[in-house]
Design a protein that fits this description.
alpha+beta
């Protein structure tokens, strides 16, 4: 029988199949060897199980820490208890997590509670005091702030309710979720959150109270969100405790939040950043903002006076606030990074920056890269991503024998950007202090935020003026390439009438529809240093460089306001011709969708197709229905800078395997037919790559993404198709197949 397992810091698993069991430091037939260290005792501890309470415990034979507390006597182990065996010799720390098997978690939770005389009598009087609106509000707030935030919930909506009342109904909600979950990993995690004392009131589970039947499709994502918010709560709590205890801080307003993520290496933050200007400071404030103002409450996070995002609305550096979906993904990414430390957060030690990596760059290379970024920024490829290969090609023209790879280039760009942001923040703090107290003596800030020295002792310095220039010009170029120019200047064309009405320019016969696009494209292609006076199309008037820059600043400021307003709004309601027609069936699923359905700005779903339950027509992560059809708007294979529509279809092959077909509206007589959807789109990307001035050495693309098969809404409807439950390899994400059977 498998009772539990210990999982080490580096991912090793030790299965506990017999009890009692010794945790040993040597091979043993009756114990579990969890370490190989000559400097520790042979027997470390003994695991036991109380059958009546189904409760695990450990008896230490040497110094142990459970949840950061030193233990010397028998101690109870809960699911996900963290165990640490101190050792000064081994390079890899002896951290372990105690994990219970994937059984029905509520069964044992109820069994233990019953044996320990917990109150299990439904409180009818308390239950009658809460309306359905109260319960809906509680559910909403728990999904926004997480379980256990009783003070916050009282402050927001439940000032007249006690914490015990709120907790009792919250526990009922969590148990109701677990009853419907088929994922026992998530179920065990949710049960482990429940806080309950013997004298607490008890509210029994009732699916109707929480209207979870209508949310079956979303229970997995709801559970993941609750667990994510619990991790944020635990992380913030430990940070506050550390600051108050170790730094002697008595006032919580004096907490040094810049240290929140300081122990995590810089390299962990590079991928999936919401914007090119995004730094560790923004990550810290995002986590802090979610804790303080709630998950998805982006408007309050953006405007909060105690967070750094408030400066974006007044910034002249065109740093647009990221889209809600992008911020949500970043929060999940940050929580994943935090979870890797398994609760052992070393807030005392700031992670070392990539100094060794930095030293491999000469002063000349750093200076050339800095100048190139100020002039040209980071290019954007046809796929909407930063084109590091093009940036490297331009840098090679300025530096002989430049040998850095694209990963090293990206890291150095982020290092320079971070230092510029730090310099600007230091300057702002200095201005604030000067305005706050004229009598306060303040040391003048250094002209550089730090010195980077090579082996000859030369210096590469970034001044405040350099930082201003870098931030303004790189962000302006990125904003133009990412917002104004894509999709055949869709944003510009949409608001052209407002541009003509609101943005006056004192040049006779100047036509914004023609000339604004002309000067914007010129700047994007040449950069700032290459910008020369332009002869305007059709009117033969020369526009000076100063006039061009002033006009482009006007346009960027105008469109930044529009983009900011768009980014913080909720998604608009679908129009009547786009509405999903949803009819609930007995399984809580979806029966009908009105097609065509606009999934996103670049994807339209035309047909769902039919399921063939053959192994060739599905995988672990995707379904490939015959007759599926979607239309993807993407860069043209034939005309650089143009976008067109590609019709994506899944066909039934003659050899028992599906065929994938993509047809460009520009070449309907020559469709691309391959054995995989990725094969089709690699062919398209190679054609697009050939049109580019700076070609990529290797093209990578996800065909399932381009077909729309990775879209959550599309997957939901495909999972509801007839015979989908017969696809044996496929792992359902939104449909509860076990309960269907």
């Amino acid at each position: 029988m498998l009772y539990a397992k210990l999982q080490s810091y580096v991912g090793e698993e030790f299965l506990i199949k017999t009890l009692p069991a010794s945790l040993s430091n040597f091979p043993s037939t009756r114990g579990i060897r969890v370490m190989k260290c000559p400097n520790n005792p042979l027997i470390i501890g003994e695991l036991k199980l109380s059958e009546e309470l189904y409760q695990f415990s450990i008896i230490p034979h040497t110094e142990l820490q459970i949840e950061n507390q030193v233990v010397t006597k028998e101690t109870i182990l809960n699911n996900f208890s963290r165990i640490y065996i101190p050792c000064k010799e081994c390079r890899i720390k002896h951290y372990y997590t105690f994990i219970l098997p994937l059984r029905e978690p509520l069964k044992y939770e109820a069994q233990r509670a019953a044996q320990t005389q917990f109150n299990r009598v439904h409180d009818k009087v308390l239950y009658a005091k809460w309306t359905q609106e109260d319960k809906e509000m509680l559910k909403k707030l728990i999904l926004q702030f997480g379980y256990g935030r009783w003070n916050k919930l009282q402050q927001l909506k439940f000032a007249n309710r006690t914490k015990q009342e709120i907790k009792a109904f919250a526990n009922s909600l969590l148990r109701s979720i677990v009853e419907l979950l088929v994922n026992y990993d998530l179920g065990a995690g949710i049960v482990n959150l429940i806080e309950e004392n013997p004298d607490d009131p008890y509210i029994e589970t009732n699916q109707k109270d929480w209207e979870l039947q209508n949310l079956k499709q979303k229970l997995i994502s709801i559970s993941k969100r609750i667990l994510m918010l619990a991790k944020i709560r635990e992380f913030i709590k430990k940070f506050k405790e550390h600051q108050l205890k170790n730094l002697g801080i008595k006032d919580k307003s004096q907490l040094k939040w810049d240290y929140l993520l300081g122990f995590i290496p810089s390299s962990s933050f590079y991928s999936q950043r919401p914007s090119i200007w995004w730094t560790r400071k923004h990550d810290s404030d995002l986590i802090r903002g979610v804790y303080q103002y709630g998950y998805t409450n982006h408007l309050m996070i953006k405007e909060a006076s105690d967070l750094c995002f408030k400066d974006l609305s007044t910034s002249q550096n065109y740093q647009e606030f990221p889209f809600p979906e992008t911020l949500n993904k970043r929060v999940k990414k940050l929580v994943q990074i935090i979870q890797k430390f398994d609760g052992f957060y070393d807030f005392d030690n700031l992670a070392q920056s990539d100094d060794e990596e930095e030293k491999s760059w000469s002063i000349a290379e750093k200076q050339a890269l800095f100048n190139l970024l100020c002039d040209y920024g980071v290019p954007i490829g046809v796929d909407g991503r930063q084109n590091w290969q093009e940036l490297k090609d331009k840098l090679i023209l300025k530096i002989n024998k430049f040998d850095k790879n694209l990963n090293q280039l990206e890291k150095m760009v982020q290092t320079i950007r971070t230092r510029c942001e730090q310099m600007l923040m230091k300057h702002k703090e200095r201005e604030f202090l000067e305005s706050d107290s004229s009598e306060l003596e303040i040391e003048q800030p250094p002209s550089s935020i730090g010195e980077i020295r090579d082996e000859q002792g030369d210096e590469f310095q970034i001044s405040y003026q350099d930082s201003q220039k870098f931030s303004k010009q790189t962000n302006m170029l990125h904003f133009i390439r990412k917002n104004i120019l894509p999709q055949n200047q869709a944003l510009f064309q949409q608001h052209i009438q407002s541009v003509e009405k609101e943005l006056f320019i004192d040049i006779p016969e100047y036509d914004p529809k023609i000339h604004d696009i002309q000067i914007i494209i010129t700047l994007s292609q040449t950069g700032f240093n290459g910008l020369q006076p332009i002869t305007l199309n059709n009117i033969n008037i020369i526009m000076t460089t100063e006039q061009i820059l002033n006009r482009i600043e006007q346009l960027c400021s105008f469109f930044k306001k529009i983009r900011d307003q768009t980014n913080i709004k909720r998604k608009p309601e679908l129009k009547d011709d786009q509405q999903k027609k949803i009819k609930p069936n007995t399984n809580g699923g979806l029966n009908e969708i009105q097609l065509p359905y606009q999934v996103s700005t670049s994807l339209k779903l035309v047909s769902l197709g039919r399921i063939i339950p053959s192994p060739a027509y599905h995988s672990e992560h995707n379904l490939f229905p015959v007759g599926y059809k979607s239309i993807r708007t993407h860069a043209s294979m034939f005309t650089k800078g143009k976008r067109c529509q590609y019709t994506c279809e899944i066909l039934e092959g003659s050899d028992g395997k599906p065929l994938f077909k993509v047809t460009s509206e520009e070449d309907v007589d020559n469709p691309i037919i391959k054995n995989s959807c990725t094969g089709c789109w690699v062919h398209i990307y190679n054609k697009i790559n050939e049109l580019q001035e700076h070609k990529k050495s290797k093209v990578t693309i996800s065909g399932t993404d381009r077909f729309g098969l990775l879209e959550a809404n599309v997957q939901r409807y495909l999972e509801e198709l007839q015979n989908a439950e017969l696809c044996s390899k496929y792992k359902f994400k939104y449909r509860n197949v076990t309960q269907d059977f």
